[in-house]
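A student in our group prepared the protein record below, which I am reviewing. Thanks in advance; the entry in question is below.
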Amino acid sequence: MKYIAQSISFIFHPLVIISYLLLILLVINPYLFSIQNEKAIGILMIYVVMLTVVMPGITVLLMRAMGFVNSIHLKERTERIIPLIITGGFYLWLFINIYQNTTIPLVFSIFVLGSTIGLFLTFFFSLFTKVSLHTTGVGGLFVGILLIKYNFSYESFLVNLGSLGSYNVSTDVLIFLSLFIAGLVGTTRLILKAHSLNEVFIGYLIGIVSQLVAFSFLFN
C-alpha cells in the first residue's frame, strides 16, 4: 500500500499539474490554441514544462546539493519556503508571458494564474503549518476542469483511438475523474503520514479558492 501511495503521489506531483491541464485542453480542443502545427505545440509544451517542472526541480536539487534542505521531498515545513518563492517566480513569469499572447486561450492563463496564487498562499501558510502541496494542486485541477465545462462551454470532446475508432466523451467524465483523483491523492498523503487531515484539507481549500480568485479576476 505504501508503494502504491508513493507512486500516486509521484504521478500527481504538484509541479506537473499545469502540464496536465495543458494536455487536457489540447485533447479537448487543439484549435483553442492559434498555433496549429505540431512543432509549435511541442515548443509550447516544452516551455511550460521547463518553467513549471524542470527549473523548480533543479532548484530543489541544487539546494539539496548545497545542504540547504535535508531531502528533495522537503519534508520539513521550513525547507519549503525558499523553493515555494522561487517556483512562484517561475509560475508568475509563465503567466506574464502567456496572458498577452493571443495564441494562448484565456482558460489556460486563468489556470496558470490560479496556480501561481495557490503557490504564494501556500508559502504564506507554510510559515505556520505544513500545507499539502499535492492537494493544493489536485484541488486546483478539479476547479480548472469545472471551469472548462461550465464557463467555456465544452460539453464533450472527441477522442481518436486510431484503429479502435473515435468516441465522443462528455467532460463530465473528466470532472468525476478529477474529483476521484483529488480524493485519492489526499488519501495517499495521509497513508504516507506526510500530512495531517487538517493540512490536507487546507491544501484543497487553497487550490480551489486560488482558481476561483483567478477566474473572477481575469474572466469578463
Remarks:
- The first strand starts at residue 156 and ends at 160.
